[in-house]
Amino acid sequence: MIRMIVKDLRINPLRTGLTALSMFIGIVALIAGVLVGTLGRDYLEAVNARLSGRTPTYSAIIDVTSVAGMQTTMTLQERLAHFEPGSASAQYHLNDLAIWASSGDGGLEIRHVAVTVTDAERTRVMPAPIIEGAWLTAADKPATLETVVNENARQYVHDGTITLARTGNPQQVPARVNGVIVDGADEPVIYVNAAALQRYWPQAWTPDGLTILVHPDAGVDDRHAKTALDDLLADVGAGSVSSWNRSDNADEYEQVIDFLQLGVIVTAMLLLAVSAIGMINIGLAGIEQRSHELLIRRALGATRASIAAQVIGSSVLLSLIIALAAVLISASLVWMVPWMMPADSPLEPPAYPYTAAMIAAGASVATSLIGSLAPAIKAIRLQPALALR
Questions:
Q1: % of the chain surpassing 90 pLDDT
Q2: Is residue 188 within 8 Å of residue 152, measured between CB atoms?
Q3: Domain that holds residue 27
Q4: Range in 167-176, 201-210, 299-308 with the lowest mean pLDDT
Q5: What transmembrane ranges does the database entry give (predicted)?
Q6: Are 164 and 131 in contact (CB under 8 A)?
Q7: Are 294 and 379 contained in the same domain?
Q8: What is the distance between the alpha carbons of residues 282 and 375, in angstroms, rounded to a whole number?
Q9: Are residues 46 and 70 in the same domain?
Q10: What is the mean pLDDT of the chain?
């Protein structure tokens, strides 16, 4: 029977090719739909994480009591680096910190660009791909006065440094630029190492406030994270939490993600339905063309079961071959995606959707089985007496 089924596939190459193409499109479309939906979700989450923190991120505004002290700041940053309920990063507000940059007439002037005084833990809460150099040095490691800039702030970098200044103060201090990141911000942003700033330019260390960003680990309740932060601040003597709010803006894109996933599912179902309809049409047309051959087999003693097995078996075998080919080709394409992604892409290289591939392969076999039932029923209803006409 297997030999007959294989031979059956070779009788009409055009019919077999059209059926194979229909199956291939359905399988690849389902895999691609799931992959696109997954990438769309990952993209929205990655962009949001750059701008407002990983999901979930909480913003804790601190009532500052003694954060101006060097020892307090160093201890606080070291403790935040080992924050057990999750990841935590401090952001100090120094309103008078600015930079010296070229003016329109060729001279130098103070520019009030966004200057964020933070620590090495920030990228664990708000990830930002590093496209050049490295991120800020950890507080417990030696470092010179250092900064990191985003792409829009490259214009202020000269000879690998940026000149920091204070509003209304003629003093200028060069700071080394560690690297360049993609943080998703549309305006220039300069990130300054808080520990290094306090150590090497203490005159500029006049914080007006402190915000701590907290990203709890999976399964950690936000109330537990807040309690842990309160205990940490009390131990360090750096004030207390006066405001605790979620700041990652996840609610704004969750509806978009749900709609995207629903659209992907509906599209995949429609593609499979179109594939099944195409197979039924091709199968019925094939029975019309092969009716004389099937009638002769019936007249020579072939049973209705063998005729049905021949018709259904050829479709199922073809679907298995096409499913394997579609999975291999789609896996090769997914493997090539990381090589085509730009360095500043917010997405991680996508993993191959094995579950979707198995579902697509199973759906292909089920579709071929369903799609071959109508042709098989038509074939077994042929009357052997017609072969004598």
A1: 24
A2: yes
A3: 2-50+252-388
A4: 299-308
A5: 21-40, 259-287, 307-331, 351-374
A6: no
A7: yes
A8: 9
A9: no
A10: 80
Query: What are the structure tokens assigned to 175, written together?
Result: 């700071």
CA distances from 289 to 217, 227, 281 (A): 64, 77, 13
Of 195, 222, 248, which marks where a domain is finished? 248
- Please list the residues that pair with 245 across neighbouring strands: 59
Residue pair 347/341 in contact by the 8 Å Cβ criterion: yes
pLDDT digits (tens, 9 = 90+) for 45-89: 788 888 888 989 999 998 765 555 667 778 888 899 999 899 999
Q: pTM to 2 decimals? A: 0.69
> Tokens in use for 159?
């000879």
The pLDDT of residue 309: 76
pLDDT-derived band at 115, boundaries 50, 70, 90: very high
- Domain boundary (248, 277, 297) is at 248
Parallel, antiparallel or unpaired: strands 189-193 and 58-63? unpaired
pLDDT of residue 366: 79
In the structure encoding, which two tokens stand for residue 102, read together?
A: 């070229």
Number of domains the chain contains: 2
Are residue 346 and residue 368 in the same domain, yes or no?
A: yes
Residue 344 tokens read as: 């500043």
CB within 8 Å of 54: residues ≥ 6 apart:
87, 125, 126, 127, 215, 248
The confidence score (pLDDT) of residue 354 equals 79
My answer on whether 76 and 218 are in the same domain is: yes
342 vs 152: CA distance, rounded Å? 17
Question: What mean pLDDT is predicted for residues 102-112?
Answer: 68
Gap between the Cα atoms of 336 and 231, Å rounded: 48
Residue 382 has a pLDDT of: 65
pLDDT at residue 10 is higher than 70? no
What pLDDT, in 10s, does the model give residues 276-293? 676 667 666 666 666 667
Indicate the residue type of 24: F
